[in-house]
Amino acid sequence: MKAPLPIPVFVLLAPLMWVLFRGTWREIDTEAQRERGHMLASGKWDARPAVACVIVAVVLTLQEYYGGGRVYQSVIRPFLMEQEEGWLSGVVNLAKYDNLYSYGWWAFARVFGYVFIPLPVWKILFPKDSLLDMGFRVSGFIRHWWIYVASLCVVIPAMFAVAQQPDFGTYYPFYKLASRSWFDLLAWEAMYFAQFLALEIFFRGWFLGALRKTEVGP
Q: What is the average per-residue pLDDT within 62-79?
């Protein structure tokens, strides 16, 4: 059984995190209290928390049932087989890239679900909310640049240390043929980067931004 190494690391980093981010957290608390005061004074009910949770549930459910290998095998792959003999002849090569295509569908489903469902729906339902406030602003980046550098100094060595573990190679990369050619490597890295960025936009950007001014905000 492996030791729970992240737990003591988090305990050691907690005081540092408090010192670095307490000002930001207090600003968020003040903003949330002010917004709640406005809602109470107007007698309105804030539907944002309920709507955000419903959107999260719908997106994750769609990805679970329609964004994986089962749909690829039953729908996408037969379509590609037809097109391989048709107008995409010479472009689609299932014999060589079948596994890569399956991960392409997986990445597309993540990006579409994480970005192109919640953001437009939220803007339609709450047109006064700015999507830029959901993790897309760069204000304060220059002022906090040293925090990002310090974080990289911790994360990069830790990443290399973890990569040396024997079980790391059995799990990463997901696409086992990434080392076959430069095309395989670059295509896979582009897919993984896109879905990871979409994941961050969804949870750390849109979801936290949607709840920021409510009583259930971070």
A: 94
Q: Please indicate, yes or no, if residue 106 is contained in any of the structural domains.
A: yes
For the record, the structure tokens of 59 come out as 């997106």
Q: CA 168 to CA 181: how far, in whole Å?
A: 21
Asked whether residue 147 falls in the same domain as residue 76, the answer is yes
Determine, yes or no, domain membership for 33.
yes
**Any domain includes 151:** yes
pLDDT greater than 50 at residue 189? yes
Is 84 part of a structural domain of the chain? yes
Residue 75 to residue 83: CA distance in whole angstroms: 13
Query: 92 forms bridges with which residues in the sheet?
Result: 89
Least confident of 60-74, 161-175, 190-204: 161-175
Give helix 94-111 / helix 48-66 axis angle, nearest 10°: 170
